[in-house]
Every structure is written in structure tokens, then in C-alpha cells.
Write a structure and sequence with these properties.
The structure holds two protein chains of two kinds. Helix content of chain A is 61%, strand content 13%. Chain A is of the alpha+beta class. In chain A, strand 6 and strand 7 form a beta hairpin. In chain A, helix 1 runs antiparallel to helix 2, helix 2 packs antiparallel against helix 3 and helix 2 packs antiparallel against helix 4. By secondary structure, chain B is an alpha/beta fold. Chain B has two domains: 123 residues, Response regulator (Rossmann fold), CATH 3.40.50; 214 residues, Orthogonal Bundle (Hypothetical protein af1432). Chain B has 18 helices and five strands. The radius of gyration of chain B is 20 Å and the shape is globular. The termini of chain B are far apart. Classes of the chains: A alpha+beta, B alpha/beta. Chains A and B meet through helix 2 and helix 4 of A and helix 1 of B. The structure holds adenosine-5'-triphosphate and magnesium ion (MG). The site of magnesium ion has 5 residues of chain A, from helix 7.
Chain lengths: 372, 358
Amino acid sequence: MTISPAPDALPADALPAAEYERKLHARDKTIEVLKKRIQQQADGGATSSFALLEQNLSLGKVIALKTEEVEHERQELEKALTDLRQAQSQLLQAQKMESIGQLAAGIAHEINTPTQYVADNIGFVDMASSSLMTLLDKTLKVVEAARAGQPSDGLVAEVDAAVKKTKLDYLRRQIPEALAQSKEGLEHVARIVSAMKEFSHPSNGGKELLDIREVINTTVTVARSEWKYVAELETRYADDLPQVSCLRDMIGQVILNLVVNAAHAVADTLQSGVREKGKIRIMVKRAGEQHIAISVADDGSGIPEAIRGRIFDPFFTTKPVGKGTGQGLAIAYSTVVDKHGGEIRCDSEVGRGTCFTIRLPLSADNGEVPCR
Amino acid sequence: MQVVFVDDESRVLAGIERTLAMSDADWECRFFTSGQEALAALADCPADVVVSDMRMPFMDGAALLGKVREQWPGTLRIILSGYSDIECTLRMLDVAHQFVSKPCDNAVLLATLEGALSLRALFKDPSVLDVLGRVNRLPSAPRVFAELTRLLADPASDARQVSRLLGSDPALSARIMQLANSAYFTGGGCGTIKSVGDAINRLGIDQVRLLVLASQVFADAVEDPFVDQLQRSSLHASKLAAQIIDGRNAQAATAALLARIGLLVPDLRDDAWLEVKTGCDTPLHAAIGAYLLGLWGLPMDIVDAVARHTHPGRAAASGFGLAGAVHVAVALANGQTPDLGYLERTGMLEQWPHWQRL
Ligand SMILES: Nc1ncnc2c1ncn2[C@@H]1O[C@H](COP(=O)(O)OP(=O)(O)OP(=O)(O)O)[C@@H](O)[C@H]1O
Ligand SMILES: [Mg+2]
């Protein structure tokens, strides 16, 4: 089934902002009307009498007072509006920082693991090379002796002993492997660090034309430690994907929120010996001429019908303190719908899993944020 | 010696295997990429030590070591891991004897294993190891613990007050020394930590609050006159030791405080254990105290002083030192006479009348 959130399920900040705009507009109108009336009365004053003048004067006073009052109110409203905008962007930034903070622990683990074996391997190669050097020195002595025409059985015996001690076969096998694995480890670290850099780099608040696959791959890499212990994650991209105009960091954040939710939902269903890992699948394809569709599907617990209407509400969560604050989907909603003029929907079945689908317009002129 | 390593990243295992191949250690090592495989292999042939990663899919390190504790309590349990969140950290605190942080210098890992394994020679009878393998924490005096809880909850309290209070209880001090001597909890700060005061400085008050309070069960809070009495006499001994020794006062205070910690092992209060022989002629409770502290990674000179606190003279002519000070302090605090022959041999006999007046 499809859920589109009821109006009151919109993120809390969306409503008041619109409300303030409307009020401001109304005030402007009042001022306009009052000004017009004074003007009219001043113009149409052919029969200029004292009474009329007095009336005009007092009316002018009232209007001046009213105007001042209204102007004051207007300023306050405007300030409230700016504050609200700022709070909203801070909230987004805060959630981003928070998720980076949470990710940092996982990323530290992801980096520490290769560091451990690269260091072990370097230690190994170090010791191996010094025993090989010893062997080489002894061998060279035999060569020298032979060249000088004085071959020595004693020196040869020394070489034999050193060969025995050096576990030559073992080293022959292990040195290349140790080096190859170390190289893989370093590549792994480099990949994570660059994904992290890309993920956390702010996009200056402007949209750019992007290959959405890159955004997704970066996010998946950064979030690896969130899902790898509970699920296999698969990405499937259609071949004909056009570039999309979007806010890179915010779309990355949305994908992250959906992937983390999926991992949590899968983790809840794991059971010893029965089901030890679940599945998360991210798919991207074209949706008509003007849109692309990104879906994040899991085979986790599913969302009970009773709460499906509230999942996009800010601070709605079913998770214990420390695991969720209920902001993930609210932010996904405001990013996709308000900032990009897209849609987000949720299909779910309890016991089978959940699929979130995002439709993003390809062109930049949808949504409130302009193109850079 | 049988050692089992478990890590879900096979390259980590390969790295450890290579390290061991180049070292002198002649242990029989087995390597597994999951807890289930390791358990199956242990069922065929138990091990002396299990070293496990913490974060692994499905059965994590704490779960694995929990099972190992149930089935083979005498096996040493070591966590080798990178960062884990606080919930995981508390779970592993409950089941592991030592924590090695990843990445670690492979010399550190080898030394940790060697140190822990060498302690087993303290006992002739391996059944003691099983009893001790189940012990992960010892009871603290409820009075002290309650006061500590209050103090840590108050943001105005400072490290000095916390340090004084923690340093008055043997069980809590042992715990804090265990944590501070593990690079895992100190972000790689190096050098052994030799006293409770240093331990608290190294860990920082926030970690102390988190780890000590959270890992202590509240069931401890029942009044126990035995524990209470032991805490008082240990504190007394601790203060005496700091006065008796020349230099290294803080370390002597900590060692004397911990000297009789073996008596806190609940099973040991059963008389049957008093018959059990140790590998040397140290009394059982002293050997057990030393074994536990060594297992938890406390510095070897403290472990040694605890092992020798009743019979300081057995180990060669190493002089008076830490072990001597702890011996005299514990005897005094418990109304006993120290080994005067030993004092004479170490040239300390003339101090005895002076110490008696402390
Ligand atoms: N893939 C999913 N499977 C099952 N339930 C889900 C899924 N995604 C979201 N939910 C439900 O929707 C609720 C709200 O999700 P949302 O991401 O907004 O907050 P959260 O995950 O609880 O916390 P946060 O994302 O702020 O850490 C969740 O608590 C959960 O009950
Ligand atoms: Mg979420």
C-alpha cells in the first residue's frame, strides 16, 4: 500500500513557515489599504472644511499609529521567519553531524581492522627480509670463496643451516601474500577516507547535476559498518540513468537514513541458526521522461499498518533511546518533497519487509532551492 | 599451549598467524572467522586461551566469550578489537579478562598472552582455574559503592575525592586498575598504571563514571559484614604500606589494598578450598588474588607483592621493596606479627618497633 502523509504529518516547520508568510502578506495589504484611504480623502477634499481636516488629522494619527504597530509586528514576524529558516537548516546540519558522529565509530573500526593486519604484515616482512639478508650474506661468502679458488665446506654447511632456519618455503609463499593483502588493506582505508570526505563535504546550499550512483556508492561505503553485520547490500542501477540536479549532501543523507532504517529493521528479524543475515537492495531507474526513482528495500520486520501514517512525523520513533530519534524520515520527507519537488512513498508488509521509493525530478527548477 | 583466534576478517587472522610464525612462541594456534566455527572446534579440543574480535556478524565477541565461560571457564578470554559502542563495551567487560585494542603492536598481543598464560603455573590443581574463570567481578563494600554513586552523580565532585573513595575499596580498585592498564580504554596511552590515583587520571572521570557504575551489579548492595570488614582492614593496610615504604607510596598503597582480594571470591569462603594446594607454597587465597590481578592485566610487581604478601621471603633475596612493605602492612592491619626472620635478612628489623607504633 502507499502512504502519502496527511497534511498534519508534514514536518512541523513547513506549516508555521507558510503560516507566517500568509500573515505577512495580510499585514502588507492592510497597510496598503489604509494608505490608499488617506490618499483618496486628501485628493477628494474639494469641500475642504475644518471638520474634514480634523477628521483627516485624527485619521492620519490613527493610521500613523496603526502603521507603526503593523510595521513592528511585521518586523517581528520577519525575524521569526528567519529564525525558523535558520533553525530548520541547523536541524538538518545537526542531524548530518549526528549521523557522521555515529558513523565515525563504525568508520574507526573499519579503518582499524586493515591497520591491524597491515602492521602485522609489515612486521612479518621486516623479520623475513632480515633473515633473508643473513642467508644472502652467507651465500655470498660461499661465492666469494669459490671465486678465490678456495671453496669451503664449512661455509656451505653454514648456508645449509641458515636455509633450514629461514623456513624458505614458508616465506616464499607468505611474503607475496602479505604484501598483496596489505595493499588491499590500504586501498580499503583510502576508499573509506575519500567516501567520508565526500559524504561530509557540504554542497554550498546549491544544486548540481550529479550521477546519483556516485552519491549512493559513497553513502553505502560510509555506512558499511551499519549494515555489514546484519545484511547483504546490493545496488542495481539501470543503464540509461541521466544526471539529476540535486543537493548532493542532502540526498546522501536521505539515502543514509533509509539504509540505516533498513539495517535496523533487518537486525530485528535475525535469529540464531535460522536467519543470520538479511537483504537490503538499492535500485535506481528512470521513471518516465522527467523523473528517476530510487528505491531502498529490505526484508526486515515491516511497518505495522497502525503506525504507517506517522512514520514521516518528526520525532516519531519506535526505537529505544540512543538508537533512534525519529528524525530520519521527517528529514527525508522535507528534503525530497520541499527541497527537490519530488515524492517519497512507502510500501510495507509486516513480516516481509519495506520498500521506500523516492521520485526525483531531473530538472533543477522544482523545489525551493535554486540551481547553482 | 592451545590458542584460538577468532576474527571475521580473515586477513587479520593471516597477519596474526605470520606474526606468530616469526616469533619464538611455540603454541598450537587455530584460527576461525566466526564464533560458531570456533565453538565447534573448541568442543573437539578445548583451548587455554581464546582471543576474539568484538564486532562480528551474528555472534559477536562478547556472545562467544560468554559461551566459552559457560563451557570452559578455565580458558582465558581476551578481546582484540577496535572501537565498540558503550553497550558492547559493557557486555565485553562482563566476559573478557583482558582487552587489547586494535590496531595493536603484535609484541603487545604476544606479551599479553604470555603473561596471562604464565600465571597458570601458580596452581597445581587445574580445577581452581575453572572456579576462577567464572569470577569476573568481586563484591565491593555497599557503603563505599553507595557513596561513590552519590559522588559521581554530583558534577561538582573532583577527581581527588573520587580517587580517595575508589582507592578505599579493593574490588573497585581492582576493576579500575584493570581498565586503566588496558590501552583499549585509555585510547592507547602507554606505560603501566601502578596506582589507583594514576588509573583515574588516565581514564578520566567520565569514563570512570560510565564503566565502574554501569558494570557493577546492584545485587552487590546487600550488606555483607565479611566484605565490609575486609574492606576496612585492607584500607588500613593500604595506609600503613604507604608509610612503611620508602618512595613508590601510591603503588604500595594500591598493592596492600589488593593483597587480600582472593578472599573476596565467593566460592573461596567454602572450607573445602582451603585444602587445595598451589604450585608453590603460597597460601591459596594469596595465589588466587595474584592470579586474578595478573589475569586482569595489572602490573607484575603488584601481582608479585600480592602473591608473596603472607610469605615474602620465599622468593630469593630480592630485598625488602614493595612485597616487604605490603607484607608488614597487611600483618599489622590484621593484628599479626610479620615474618621477623625476613625483616632481619632484609635489614629492616630495627624499623619494626617504629612500624608498630604507626
Ligand atoms: N525500513 C523500515 N522497516 C521497518 N520500520 C521502519 C523502517 N523505516 C522506518 N521505520 C519505522 O519508522 C520509524 C521512524 O523512522 P525514522 O527514520 O524517522 O526515525 P528512527 O529511525 O526511529 O530514528 P532516526 O532515524 O532519527 O535515528 C522508525 O522508528 C520505525 O519504526
Ligand atoms: Mg531512521
